[in-house]
Amino acid sequence: MLAVLRNPSYAKLFSAQIIALLGTGLLTVALGLLAFDIAGGDAGVVMGVAMTIKMVAYVAVSPVTTALTARLPRKPLLIGADLIRAGVAVSLPFVTEAWQIYILIFLLQSASATFTPAFQAVIPSVLPDEGEYTRALSLSRLAYDLESLVSPMLAAALLTVISFQDLFAGTVVGFLASATLVIVTRFPYIATPPPAPFFDRLTRGVRAFWASRELRGLMGLNLVVATTTAMVIVNTVVLVQGDLGRPQTDVALMLAAYGGGSMLVALGMPKLLDTLPDRNVMLTGGIAIPVLLLAATGVIAWADGTGQWVALLVLWGLIGAATSTILTPSARLLRRGSSEENRPAVFAAQFSLSHACFLITYPLAGVLGAAIGLSAVALVLVGIGVLGSIVATTAWRPASRVESPVP
């Protein structure tokens, strides 16, 4: 898998991704501490609003900025987005009111909503060989999972010697280092698309999704992933400390089980996709996720003691593995369903549509979970996951061939 790093352009871009992810992880920790410093007991409200703003920016801003910048070269676009993110990170330690956090978070996440799909759309041109591209996707999945484990530990270690405001400096360094690596990377030639009306550019990615059976299937799988991700991210701490009465370290252990399952699958994905088609792998995960979440519901409701804890750890690991069977190969579908001309729009559409699913399931998992309990809200998420699986299997029929990309 690491052989793909022999490509110097990809090696630099992958390094930029890792550094930016670590910077973002430090930012998340520092932002929570800043919110508490400003709002005290209402810090949860501030963070909840900030995360909602993040999702709204991801859903609404990404297609618009992609349409507005469709004819701009990718390299200066990525550099500019990184510099904006660094500028916002510099400003955050100086805020004194919650509304200032909200404005800066919107600017930061709007820049991320521009950077991420544009970055992802460049990689297929850097790695035209599908085998190499698949290995790059596995590395990317590993990077995301490792960041979720490493960033909190790094932040905790740094907080023993510096104040939380200084964590923002680490974020600034991360974004500036990412921009520097992009600057020194040699980009392949990517033809500038011909002029087109703004509405045509704005809807280009969504039209590509509608035209492709694979991508319509991916839309259903996005909904499945959103259900399990919401349950894990929003309710793991509530489950471990609230329902089970276990210590904070067990929250980290349970999240590590989820991340570990995801990483194991990501490591084996290139060989798996050499022997099995994407549809079989991804739909297996799409069907397994609601089943595993249903099993977790039963364990939460009826099991107890050590057996319950061990069972939940195993289930969280399996849920992470099933989620990775969808997330790791998904960009292969985007690559096949796009052309050089519309690829940024297709990746932006995936970025926006997948986060629209999170915008539904995250509030459900949090608000409904507090109102009716974890077992009941898990059943609701199971129902949504089953709906997503039905959409995916219906839209992505086995006899379908790969359609020509929508121009």
TrEMBL record:
GO cellular component terms listed in the entry, alphabetical order: plasma membrane
Principal subcellular localization: membrane
TM spans (from-to): 45-65, 217-239, 251-269, 281-303, 309-334, 346-365, 371-392
Location of the protein in the cell: Cell membrane
Keyword annotations from UniProtKB, A to Z: Cell membrane, Membrane, Transmembrane, Transmembrane helix, Transport
Entry membrane topology: Multi-pass membrane protein
Top-level lineage group: Bacteria
A Pfam family of this chain: MFS_1
A GO term, aspect molecular function: transmembrane transporter activity
Keyword RNA-binding in annotation: no
Name of this chain's protein: MFS transporter
